[in-house]
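Tokens in:
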């Protein structure tokens, strides 16, 4: 059980980092224009994703142990691998959700702190 928790936490952390960086790249490219705005979105998403890591691991361990007790799952065999994969999945999804929320806040902040230059239209002859 302990090996499954350790393995699932490491696998979930690695998956969360990999998927969150890809998510931040896509969101920053889609909703920002200037490099300063992109940087701001990535920093906000990264900060909220990092803050969410500890609660994500706690939630995944709590949920998996609850499911184990609720459904009387066996402790032997290959169950520890399924337990670890479930931990990794819940951890990665929780961190990615927090990262997306941070990126959304970053888009709002980037647009207010670094507004886009407005064109004055075509000059009159």
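Residues out:
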């Amino acid at each position: 059980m302990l090996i499954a928790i350790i393995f699932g936490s490491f696998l979930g952390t690695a998956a969360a980092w990999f998927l969150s960086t890809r998510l931040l790249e896509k969101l920053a490219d889609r909703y920002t224009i200037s490099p300063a705005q992109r940087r701001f979105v990535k920093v906000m998403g990264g900060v909220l994703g990092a803050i969410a890591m500890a609660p994500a691991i706690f939630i995944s361990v709590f949920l998996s142990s609850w499911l184990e007790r609720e459904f009387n799952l066996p402790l032997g065999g290959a169950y520890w691998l399924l337990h670890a994969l479930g931990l990794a999945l819940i951890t990665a999804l929780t961190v990615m959700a927090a990262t997306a929320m941070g990126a959304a806040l970053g888009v709002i902040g980037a647009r207010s702190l670094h507004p886009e230059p407005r064109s004055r239209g075509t000059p009159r002859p």
